[in-house]
Design brief:
53% of the residues lie in helices and 12% in strands. Helix 3 crosses helix 4 and helix 9 packs across helix 10. The strands form two sheets. Strands 1-2-6-5 form a four-stranded mixed beta sheet. It has a single domain, classed as Collagenase (Catalytic Domain), CATH 3.40.390.
Length: 276
């Protein structure tokens, strides 16, 4: 009886391995076909890259990987223009290149839980019903540049996405897509799924300590060149620090060295070496 159970277990394991290998091979073949059939011209790539100084320090291999990621990203996502805004090849590439930079070493699967990017020509107004803890319904009216919805779309202002990659420490596209990375395991809370090399206790301890410290700094208007919006919640802290990490990493390394180390481990990239 024991021998039969062991044989069944062995057959199940082998079957699973075969299925996984087949899926892997099919996915690779499918992705290679999509990349090969891409209609994006070299001129379009060149124009998009020239508009994004943020990408200038990437190696030849990194550029190749980023382009392939972008082609797959564009193939798998739906871009919609709001208020009559036209989605051109430039819009697709400028947004996709910035959105894919944070997942350059993580893979497109990190963005599997949403399918749509909505692009407004500029900032937009929201008008939503909000229910507080007492059940009181109010309307939340505000002007915003971007949003990321849990299991929903990413919404961006083109005016601010087009100029996001200027290496000024602010990047709307990276900010909103960092929220999507955070949302892989639920609501955005500054604690995305951690991969090998990162420990939960280290992440929670250092981010909690840094968030509390930054909150204090904001009350004294001593922000180290980092947007005080990061002090509004742990989720915004992670997203703001992610955009600074890819644009002005030296600021984080100087004032928040532990956070800089954790972000290098998380994104598996060292922007400080290519932007220096």
């Amino acid at each position: 009886m024991v021998v039969i159970v062991e044989m069944v277990f062995f057959i199940v394991i082998v079957t699973l391995i075969v299925l996984l290998v087949k899926k892997f091979l099919f996915t690779n073949y499918h992705n290679s076909h999509i990349i090969k059939k891409s209609t994006i011209t070299q001129l379009q790539w060149d124009e998009a890259y020239q508009s994004l100084p943020l990408l200038k320090g990437l190696s030849v291999e990194e550029n190749k990987s980023l382009k392939e990621l972008c082609v797959l990203f564009i193939h798998n996502k739906t871009f919609e223009g709001a208020q009559g805004f036209e989605i051109t090849s430039k819009v697709l590439l400028v947004i996709s290149l910035q959105a894919c930079l944070p997942i350059l070493k993580l893979g497109l699967d990190c963005y599997r839980n949403f399918s749509t990017i909505i692009v407004y020509p500029a900032g937009f107004k929201t008008n939503r019903k909000v229910v507080d803890e007492n059940g009181v319904v109010d309307h939340d009216r505000k002007h915003t540049l971007g949003e990321s919805w849990l299991s929903g779309p990413v919404i961006l202002s083109w005016c601010d996405s087009e100029t996001a990659g200027m290496i000024d420490g602010s990047n709307l596209v990276i900010h909103e897509f960092a929220h999507k990375l955070d949302m892989q395991n639920g609501v955005a809370n500054g604690f995305p799924p951690l991969h090998k090399g990162l420990k939960r206790n280290d992440w929670v301890r250092e981010f909690t300590k840094a968030f509390t410290y930054f909150e204090r700094k904001c009350t004294k208007n001593d922000l180290h060149g980092i947007d005080c919006y990061a002090a509004t919640s742990p989720a915004e802290f992670f997203s703001v620090f992610s955009e600074v990490f890819f644009e002005r990493p030296g600021r984080i390394k100087k004032y928040f060295p532990e956070i800089h180390t954790l972000l290098e481990l998380y994104y598996r990239q060292t922007p400080i070496s290519r932007l220096s």
